[in-house]
Each structure stands twice: as C-alpha cells, then as structure tokens.
Amino acid sequence: MDDRTMSASQLFFARLLGREGAAAMEAESRGWLLVCPHCGFERSVWSTGGVRYKASGSGRVGRTCARCGQSGWNSFKKGPDFPASTGPVWPLVRMIVGLVLFIWLLIAAVLVTIFWLTGLIR
Q1: What count of other Cβ atoms lies within 10 Å of the Cβ of residue 35?
Q2: 43 lies in a domain?
Q3: Residue 120 included in any domain
C-alpha cells in the first residue's frame, strides 16, 4: 500500500482502520469489480480510487467507462481473486463508533451554542 497512489477516501479510511485493517480493506476492494453496462469492461474498485470493505450485495454506481467513454450505472460484482478470509472487524467497529460519537458531540455543541445565543441557558 503506497500512500502516493491512494485516493483521499482510501487514505482517510486507511488511517482510521490502522495497518492491519487497511491491508484487509485494500485486498477486499481489489476483489470487487465495477462492470460497465455498455461494453462489459471490468476494473477493480480500488483502482478507481474507491473503497468497498465489508460490503455485500451488488450495488450500482454512476461512472464513465474508461474503455467506451459512455456514462452509466456500473454494477459491483465479486471478482475471481476475491479474498477468502476476512479482515479484522474491530477496527471497522471502532471507526464507526468514533464517527457516531463525534457527530453527536458536534450536534450537542451546536445546540448548546444556539440555546446560549437565544438566552435559554446562561
């Protein structure tokens, strides 16, 4: 994993998940493929700068194909080299709980500021 070739979202999640979690995230994201609906061109989610970790199902994302140049809803599918073993769950849980707590604190700070400015609390 080279920091110079990672997108901003990949760097963000890699730093939050730690070394072991980031390696598992990269391996799993490389195993997911985006498929063009027009020409069938397949490329890994990781190579497009995306992250798909601990995901299931086959969602879709709007993209322009690198081969045919047409825009459309590219679908996700598991590639032939999808990792059989899953990475650690705890870094992902820790990240989600931390983000939720941060959002709650931010909302509380905004509410306290509003109440203080309106004179409801002193």
Answers
A1: 17
A2: yes
A3: no
pTM: 0.68
For residue 40, give the amino acid letter: G
Mean pLDDT of 29-55: 93
Q: Rounded to whole angstroms, how far apart are CA atoms 68 and 77?
A: 19
Confidence (pLDDT) at 55? 85
- E-strand stretches of the chain: 32-35, 42-44, 60-64, 71-78
The pLDDT value recorded for residue 4 is 67
CB 23, CB 2: distance < 8 Å: no
The domain total for the chain is 1
Q: Are 22 and 29 a contacting pair, CB within 8 Å?
A: no
Which phi-psi region, left, alpha or beta, contains residue 49 (left: φ > 0; alpha: ψ -120 to 50)?
left
Residue bearing tokens 């799993």: 28
> Hey, what are 95's tokens?
């990240």
Q: Quote the tokens at residue 65.
A: 């194909």
Six token digits for residue 59: 């969602």
